[in-house]
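Late entry, written up from scratch paper. The run itself happened at the end of the previous shift, but nothing got recorded in the book at the time, so transcribing now.
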Amino acid sequence: MAAIEVENLQRSFDGGVIAVDGVDLEVDGGEIFSFLGPNGAGKTTTVRMLTTLLRPTGGSAQVAGYDVVEDAAAVRRAIGVALQEAALDPLMTGRELIHLQATLHGLPPAEIDDRADALLQRVGLTRAADRRVGTYSGGMQRRLDLASALVHQPEVLFLDEPTTGLDPVSRMTIWEEVSKLNDEGTTVFLTTQYLEEADKLADRVAIISAGKIVAEGTPASLKAEVGKPRLEVAVAEGSPAACEDVLARFGECLPAKDGTLIVELAGGAAEIAPVVRALDERGILVESLELVEPTLDDVFVEKTGQHLEESDEPLPGQAGRVAE
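Output as recorded:
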């Protein structure tokens, strides 16, 4: 059963700014779905519509089987949400905040203490539970916000750029917790600017640019669309021409780069050993070899014309029409 179904979803703002321009999506129950794109692409606007915080100006969306406009209250009961900016009262303690969220969600008072303890332990904040949130680091606040979103055990969890600005250790902690939640059956809708995050966590990825979906699929299938793995070989002894003859038996040879020979290997890593044996049989001594896999950045460039890390600047013709 689909956890999220979106058809021709649109959102425009005064002044003719189009933030989301006809998005179609289907997210299966129990998967991690990643929405990948730069600032201003429409990721956050889409999430705000799916979580009933913003009314669509066109199209339709259902989350957990409920329409986000007609059944907004039912959607809110079924989802957990952790947005980019954690709305945490700095004067409350972590424990107090979890208690408040549990009360707002209508949990029986007798269950709240145990639920709070379990969630604080889950996100590694037991020792800091009775400190004021204003003393927490950025990573601790993100983890507390995640715990708050899990108070009522939601079917679908929305995480809007949950690791932006975090140090690598805090980022890895969030990744591990997201994976655990998914293993337990929670559907996760994750927006991110980080290629590695989408590649590591997501079962499927959608790339959004200028409010439109420009690519969708598993990370592996998207990368396969833009090229095969490439083996780059530097020869220590022996003829480069002879080396190229050998490599050509395994795949298409690409133009050499700085003296390094390059061949596409459809089988990827599984073909490295046969290539090395064939080179050895020809008396060719290899100085180095490296298998280079296509990346999601290659996909992003193919679909949008720019690298994700460079994409804060709008493409020609896009200026002034897209907002986050």
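Residues 310-324 have pLDDT under 50 and may be disordered.
(Scratch paper discarded after transcription.)
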